[in-house]
Specification:
By secondary structure, the protein is an alpha+beta fold. Helices cover 18% and strands 31% of the residues. The protein folds into 3 domains: 95 residues, Immunoglobulin-like, CATH 2.60.40; 90 residues, no CATH class; 77 residues.
């Protein structure tokens, strides 16, 4: 899946082939219609791709204007071809916030993999792996690496005195709103157990209100994460994991069972990683594993 920073026109290339012959060969299509949906599934846009003419048979492209990609996320597309080269092609592309902070910058990842900065052929794949590694690491740490805002529904526990949040460490609470009333309550007297992710009132009193005996469910908006910069140990762990995944994919898996190259399992990850990565992540893990 290709990834593009928000705020730039997107160039989507297509090749139409005649599938009635073996092997299929490029052919100028009859009629092409491209439909692109937004991440939330609304307001699909339709386009007629442009034939590249002198570039060769069957080659087309579509430029998606900035105004048509206002949302962050995955945009699925379908290309319908009628007449010559008839068929249906489909795919998607991802629009991301260019200001988002990731565990590894693309330029750093390319240095780690010994890929020249001018070589952009693997950029999309590298960014996918970085995103996957970051999601996996957040399962290990129990919350975001970089502090961000989270909104979730929470039910009162411990005699209506505690709200247990799912992401941690909790940096601050922005608002607590009873679902039954929709009116934010005062948070002037709350105290936060940062690492446990538990919110209580300072005197241990219940969260009183109209919801008390009937619907003790709240919408809580809060900030959680390890800070505004990625801890260097996590950067190094991500680098080790990226290098391992990259070499494994290319048939050069790390096989020496000694030192930092010994493989281990970390709770929360769906794959084994070099022991060095586990050691680097240990201080930030939600549960001990080394």
């Amino acid at each position: 899946m290709a990834r593009y920073p928000q705020g730039q026109p997107l160039y989507l290339p297509f090749t139409v082939k005649d599938n009635t012959v073996t092997p299929p060969v490029p052919v100028d299509g009859g009629s092409l219609t491209l439909t692109v949906r937004k991440p939330d599934g609304t307001s699909p846009q339709t386009y007629t791709p442009t034939h590249d003419g002198a570039a060769g048979s069957g080659l087309y492209h579509q430029i998606i204007p900035v105004a048509d990609t206002p949302q962050l996320g995955k945009y699925p597309w379908v290309l319908v071809i009628t007449g010559a080269g008839a068929g249906v092609a489909y795919g998607n592309f991802d629009v991301f916030d260019p200001f988002e902070v990731t565990v590894l910058a693309l330029s750093d990842a390319k240095d780690i993999l010994n890929i020249d900065q001018t070589d952009t052929s693997d950029d999309a794949e590298i960014q996918r792996k970085i995103a996957a590694i970051e999601s996996a690491l957040e399962r290990v740490t129990g919350g975001p690496i970089i502090t961000r805002s989270i909104t979730e529904r929470v039910e009162l526990t411990s005699g209506y005195t505690a709200l247990v949040l799912r992401k941690r460490p909790v940096a601050s609470v922005t608002s607590i709103t009873p679902v039954s009333t929709g009116v934010p309550m005062s948070i002037a007297d709350i105290e936060i157990d940062t690492n446990a992710g538990i919110v209580r009132r300072k005197l241990g009193l219940p969260f009183y209100g109209a919801y008390f005996a009937f619907a003790p469910i709240f919408t809580v908006t809060y900030m959680a994460g390890l800070g505004t910069a990625v801890p260097q140990a996590i950067v190094e762990a991500a680098a080790v994991i990226l290098k391992h995944l990259w070499s494994t994919q290319r048939g050069n898996a790390l096989t020496v069972p000694t030192g930092g190259e010994q493989m281990t399992t970390i709770p929360g990850l769906g794959f084994m990683v070099p022991n060095l990565a586990a050691e680097l992540l240990a201080p930030y893990a939600l549960e001990a594993y080394v």
